[in-house]
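Quick one: structure for this chain?
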Amino acid sequence: MRGATWVALGCIWLATTAARGQPRDDKEYEAEGRVEYEDEDEPVEGTTAAELIARIEALELRLQQQEESRRAGGPRLRLTGYADLGVFVVQGDGSGTRRDVGNAIFPEEAGFGWVFYGDLLAPTVNSRGEVADLGDLPGVTRFDSIDSNGAASFLVNELNLTFNAGLSPSALFTASVNFVPRTGKDFALGDFLDVDLAQLEWLPTGDPILSVMVGKVESVIGIEYKQRKANQRFGITPTLIARYTTGSALGVKARLKLFGERLIIAGAATNGSFGTEQFHFYSEIDSNDAKTASGRVAGRVGLGGLTVEVGGSGSIGQQDGAGNGADNMWFAGVDVEVTHPFFEVRGQFLKGKAPGDAVSRSYALDLSFGGYLEAVARIGGTLGVLVRGEIRDARVWQDTERLYLTKSWRAVVGARLTLGPHVVVKLEALHNGEYGGVPSIPNSLVTSSLVVSY
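Got it. Here's what it folds into:
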């Protein structure tokens, strides 16, 4: 596995020394949350005269600040962010997993001490991927951040601050911090802080065709990570496979665009996988010497008013948390994205495995398959609608102590209303279901999100 890591680092080095081309467009920076290069002052349909005056005044102030910063010789610093507020109503007790007592449903799994079925992360209520309730399962203690017990609740999903510092014409530092207010227990505060991005981006050729990022960086697996934040996502909730692909990780990453941005190549060497922090397969600080190598190759073409991108991606590396000498954990998949000014269609398919480790009590994984297909449409510049279908077939187990069996599907419908350049209201209904002999669990829900950007 160390060999694969050196290959990934070698590809990054070769790309750094050889790349030349055209700068990327603003949409790529917007998708990656790097607002330094985007033009937020372009009027949108329905903008009033008062809003235009406010935009002009804000632009004049920004230009004045940039000129003062330039004269002072300091970095160009910009602070942005958003507040994500919501309310949700969930079916049942809000949890997505049940215990198979006495192996009555799955007698063939009697070799495990505890057997559970369903999906812990199916009843998702916000863009963070938090669920209404994790349930009260024996033999384990989990941080149940919402813990609603099935009750409807208002929620401050997160307050985000994003810092962008232009250090030079070819260097940009970006940091993203989430403040998450939650209920305290036993005289302890429940609020917590989440640093989800801290990266230095360097343009070694002087133009954005090639960028190298170091620090806590975004994923290179699939396409959903581009919309992982509440102010980037058209809808509200992440998919059933987002837990494997949309997290950020510590390491080095590079992206190269060739032939007029028709070919995109990305690679990374990181401490661990790009799984989300709340799931079993994540480790911020590595416990083994070998790193995880990840990459994606995609082709992009324009067809009239359409832009079509098709890609393949994957990762391989010693399993997070399992220590030196552990076997490899891997993921592989394909994705497609079709964009148009009035609609978008995207989908992704993913497989993966992790061996687990009895000594370190690391979980094992057999993701037979998972995927989704999503379509969104924009109507009149202010209204949008979303439909999505998802599926996940997986086994997760910890030695012979516990087993989670998942054969889940989900149908999602949503609506989006843009109230102005800084305020968006979203509504989503999720129907979670089981198949393949797994009993149905009542955990469908309706959730909402008010995103105020600044």
